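[job 4471] stage=fold_predict status=RUNNING
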Amino acid sequence: MPLRLAGQGMRTGSHACLRLAFLGSLCAAPLPALGVPIYGDDDRKDLYEVADDKGLVRLARSTVALFKAEKVKLEKESAKLETETLGKTINLAASERFHDQKQGAFCSGALVGPDLVLTAGHCVLTEGDCQKTRFVFDFSIPEKGHDPARVPAKNVYQCGKLLKSTWDIGRLAVRLRIDTPGSYDEAFEPDERRGHQWQGGKDWALVKLDRPVLDREPLAINKTGKIGKGTRVFVIGHPLGLPTKIAGNGTVRVSPFEDFFVSDLDIFSGNSGSPVFNAETKLIEGVMSRAFDDSFAEAGGQLKHKVLPQGGGKGVDATRVEILVKDLGSALTGKKDSSSVFDDQRPEDRYPRPGERGETPAARERK
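[job 4471] inference complete, writing structure tokens
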């Protein structure tokens, strides 16, 4: 069984090979899956469908799409994003949702500091990966008819520095063994970890952007506590590289593990790095990392979504954010005992007001 990651392409059946515009040709086998089946109803919504919920829209504005640098062309005051319709990209049946929408992002992320983006480790494994990535805000459809392929140039950011990237693929393979006995590749599982059941794999990265983001607020994370089984969750990101989608109606299925929790959110390739929110507190609880079920079936030479009951299948994994807090602080300062970048701050200190540069007035006054 191949490793199946939320941010990469897939191979369907024994011969079919998909070509994703944002990943290039993916004909080598075996390949990761595009995501998971739809659990129950398809809960993905565009921004214009939740426009009345200002709080939800505010959260979505602080999420970001990751594009390959060559797919972003700056043109004076705007940027043109190289996209293709979803139907053409993956040969999706015309009857399927979002068939005609444009897609192009390869991963998702969340603004968690004035110039910090949290995403999945497998999205930006190295400094080289980071430098070849553009971080694009407002790749979305806030109203019907809006063209998401053009955004203000100020919404495009480059990688200033990859502060830290972690992708524990060895531990990930252990979960594959437990889920599908006898069908995993032992080469992925280190000898010293054989016999360990349900050990998760950390999968996260922290990127420092080339400049602060001044027109939206960093998202808050759960710095303490451990999300429990049965907690309601939702995710915001770019499934299949599409414009921003908000998917709710998710529930934490399993949560005894150190590094991750399992839910039944509707996610796909491109959702890797998406923030998973607690539906009650609106705090980020996890970073979407991986999935284990196939998401499409071939029908008449085209693809259609698979559908499972809500709570069916193997579910999807999100790396816990509370285990990252100390690591994130260390990544910024180089001190193991440093306080986290996510320590509480007064609102006027969190980020410069629009139009300001550098320090906030409150910070200068305390010097």
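[job 4471] summary: Residues 1-34, 177-199, 333-367 have pLDDT under 50 and may be disordered.
[job 4471] exit 0
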